[in-house]
Structure formats: C-alpha cells, structure tokens
Amino acid sequence: MVDxxxxxxxxxxxxGIYLVRPLQRGDGPNKFRLSAMETATTTHxxxxxxxxxxxxxxxxxxxxxxxxxxxxxxSIDCPRCVAEFDYDEFADLELLYLTCPVCKSRMSHGxxxxxxxxxxxxxxxxxxxxxxEFKHSYS
Length: 139
Ligand SMILES: [Zn+2]
Ligand SMILES: [Zn+2]
Prior knowledge:
Blueprint: H1 4-10, H2 12-25, H3 27-41, E1 46-48, E2 56-59, E3 66-69, E4 76-77, E5 84-85, E6 94-98, E7 108-110, E8 122-124, E9 131-133
Parallel strand pairs: 1-9
Antiparallel strand pairs: 2-3, 2-6, 4-5, 7-8, 8-9
C-alpha cells in the first residue's frame, strides 16, 4: 500500500495504455452481438399448420429405407419394398428429417408437447432460416 501512490505517478503512461487496450478488445463481443442480430432478423420465411408441413423423410418400418412424403396428406409409399402407409400412420413411423421447401436442406425438428403428441411440432432450416410450426387447433 505504501508504494501504491508512487506506482500511480510513475505509471501514468501505463494507465494510458491500459485504457486503450479494453477498447480494442471490445471488438470481439461487439462482432458477436452484430452477428446474433443478423441471425434474428433473417428469420423471414415460414409456415404454420399441419397442411403446410414441409416434405418429410420417414424410415420404412419393413425394410428401413428412406421414404419421402411430399406433404402431410400424401400416402407414404416405400420405393424399395412397396410397403404402403396411410398419411395417418405418420406417427407410427420413424421421422428421419424434414426437407426445407425453400432451399431443400435438412431441417432441425422437435416437439413441444411430447407428452400429448407423438409427432413433430416445429422445424427450422439452419441454412435459410425458414421455420415451420404446427399450431394446435385445440390450444
Ligand atoms: Zn420399405
Ligand atoms: Zn432452407
């Protein structure tokens, strides 16, 4: 403590340097904040409702092939073992992924009420930010 005031007097130049450094370091967090905002504002496209559900790729429960269901009301026909499933059997089959209707990328998907429903309830395209949401008519 005795040497502290002397250290300040002798270290004014050093203090000046320390004042500049945090500003330069601030570049990192600022850049991060900007890119986070960009990500939020580019969420421009989306749909709601089961009828507008993006095309889904399901797993055939007989042969394990990938089966594309173009929309929610299409029957689900396996191209390999010719197994046929009605659209209302969707929930019985394993959903592999949904396909973005805008850029055809694989979408991330998930559920919001797994205790009440056993179907996908939302999907987001990480490539173009298209978002689909299944809105419950009863909630
Ligand atoms: Zn099959
Ligand atoms: Zn997309």
